[in-house]
Amino acid sequence: MALVLLDESPTLYAYADFPPFGRCPRTTPAASVHEGEFRVDESEVESMARGSRLGAMGALTLVAGVTLGGCAINPATGKNQLMLVSQDQGIAMGRQADTAIIASIGLYPDASWQAYIQQLGAKLAATSERPDLPWTFRVVDDPAVNAFAVPGGFVYVTRGLLTHLTDEAELASVVGHEIGHITARHTAAEMSKQQLIGAGLALGSMASSTVANYAGIANQALGVLYLKYSRDDESQADLLGLRYMSRANFDPRRMPEVFRMLDQMSAAEGGGQVPTWLATHPSPTNRVAAITKQIAALPQSFSGTVVNGDSYLRRLDGQVFGDDPREGYFQGSRFLHPGLRFQLVFPDGWATQNGKQAVIAVSSAQDGIVEVAGAQEASADAAARAFLAQQGITAGASSRANVHGLATVSAPFGAEASGGTIRGIALFVEYRGGVFSLIGYAADARWSSYKTAVENTLHSFQALTDPGALDAQPQRVEIVKLTARTSIATMAQTRPSPVSAATLALINQVALDAPLEAGRLVKWVVGPATLPTNKP
Predict the structure, then answer these.
(1) Residues ≥6 apart with Cβ < 8 Å to 72
(2) Which range, 347-361, 406-420, 483-497, is most confident?
(3) Is the pLDDT confidence value at 529 over 60?
(4) Among 178, 187, 189, 181, which Cα is nearest to 69's?
(5) Burial of 452 (0-12, 13-18, 19+ CB in 10 A)
(6) For residue 522, which of 493, 491, 484, 481 has the smallest C-alpha distance?
């Protein structure tokens, strides 16, 4: 969690999926034909709509959508596609999602990595069929092993993925795969359908923008992360990724190695708020075999192609591995934030999530929430007034108190949500020159059951002073140059690491007992085996 404040609210772009026909209407060449440009037969659109459950109004909407979005040959796939999201709309969707992703997950705070991924991604995107998109490539600060993309040319890789790859060609294959999802318009279709459905928290969207702000941002970002493609989409993105990395002169033989590594990962590997690759990228049948067959069909002279193994590994030296406790960590229900020097205790049994913008806890029934975030105002009084003055908020009497030596202002409140009325308590705490907002609320019918637990959490906010907790450090990757022939299993007997030998073998993409020659660079994880236990 960091003090990141956002004021923007989501804007949804509609998308229509019409399973009764699932195809573009008949097209005829336009008067002035450019590649991939066709004129829609509107009479057929109307007929198709009437044949479905859309009716007359649906037919009108469909005609308008098809006329505006249009059918066109996608140059990446060679297929005729019904495009109800224009390129400009896709870019707008991507920029909005990018804001939510940065706020909810955060970027890895290493300028050299950010510059490197942008340069590598731009090189690959320039070989694609859509080089004119405003391509943006980012490393997000999450330990999960994944990569994802949103419309408009936005591609993200996690720092967890970077630590599991062994060379630049492998990274190029992953980035090329995500570029393929964009050029094939998989991201626009899936994200648009998801936005139309509009998944929200169990309590629904609230009249109060402040109460709902984090929920909306978190849902939007997490929704992007959980875009799940079909196996056909995955196969298509694999082939496009292979195309782009080959055009950029990377060794295509490294692509199957990434799939082998992913297949070896367990469901629990990687943790974090971003799902793992296999949770969002369902593996097509015989994926390695399919790609290997495609590679075999390429010219077999790979001399001069780029791998860049050692230079890539040297970039990883010092990289954070796993969760970074400086950004906050949990010990059971207790949350400690060494960076911001505070702690509090959430209700037992509630699901917790630490994000860049806020840390939240949700009841097991998903009808109660506690949220801790930074406030924009300079004092607790000002923050309370701004919150309670919002339209739709019914405020109770506010009161001032001293909680663990900190000045606070609190007030009960009610608000109208899409699912009914909610009730809660807002507490604003002045701490270290800023103001923290602690808000707990639940559905009106359940508030009496949660009130005591929520109040206890809000009043547990206090300074973190334990030296051990304040000095919590993350595990990191250390690059070791071997001086003699050995194996990961042998090294683990004499060289300490806080992670298992199996994990070390996995991130190096070798078998535990595989011989490693002298001079080879090896990834090793160093740092504390456990996080310090706080002494409140």
Answers:
(1) 36, 37, 38, 80, 81, 83
(2) 483-497
(3) yes
(4) 189
(5) exposed
(6) 481
**pLDDT, tens digit, for every residue of 6-38?**
333 332 222 223 233 334 544 433 332 233 333
Distance, in Å, from the CA atom of 3 to the CA atom of 209, rounded to the nearest integer, reads 18
Tally of CB atoms within 10 A around 509: 18
Handedness of CA 346, 350, 354, 358 (dihedral sign): negative
| Mean pLDDT, all residues of the chain | 80
| Dihedral sign computed on CA atoms, order 346, 348, 351, 353 | positive
* Amino acid, single-letter form, for residue 506: L
Decide if 135 contacts 94 (C-beta within 8 A).
no
Residue 121, both tokens = 């991604």
- Residue 161: strand, helix, or coil: helix
Name the CATH superfamily housing domain 326-464.
Answer: Mog1/PsbP, alpha/beta/alpha sandwich (3.40.1000.10)
Handedness of CA 409, 344, 209, 152 (dihedral sign): positive
Q: What is the pTM of this model?
A: 0.77
Please report, for the chain, the start and end positions of each structural domain, with discontinuous segments joined by +: 27-82, 91-320, 326-464, 472-526
* Distance from chain centroid for Cα 515: 37
Q: What is the pLDDT of residue 210?
A: 41
Which string of b and e fits 213-242 if b means at least 16 CB within 10 Å? bbbbbbbbbbbbbebebeeebbbbbbbbbb
pLDDT band at 357 (very low <50, low <70, confident <90, very high): confident
List of residues 6+ apart from 234 with CB closer than 8 A: 281, 282, 283, 284, 287
DSSP per-residue string spanning 381-444? HHHHHHHHTSTTEEE---EEEEETTEEEEEEEEEEEETTEEEEEEEEEEEETTEEEEEEEEEEG
Dist. CA 447–CA 435, nearest whole Å? 26
Q: Give burial (CB, 10 Å; 0-12/13-18/19+) of 535.
A: exposed
User: pLDDT above 90 covers what percent of the chain?
Assistant: 57
Instruction: Name the band, by pLDDT with cuts 50, 70 and 90, for residue 354.
Output: confident
List, as one string, the DSSP characters of 102-146.
HHHT-B-S-HHHHHHHHHHHHHHHTTSS-TTS--EEEEES--S--
DSSP strand pairing (462-463 vs 399-403) = unpaired
Q: Residue 41 contacts by C-beta under 8 Å, 6 or more apart in sequence?
A: 25, 26, 27, 28
| pLDDT above 60 (res 66) | no
Q: Please state, in angstroms and rounded to a whole number, the distance separating the CA atoms of residues 246 and 406.
A: 60
Long-range contacts of 86-89 (CB under 8 A, 24+ apart): 87/133, 87/152, 89/13
Place 198 in a pLDDT band, splitting at 50, 70 and 90: very low
Q: Smallest Cα–Cα separation from 375: which of 438, 316, 299, 417?
A: 438
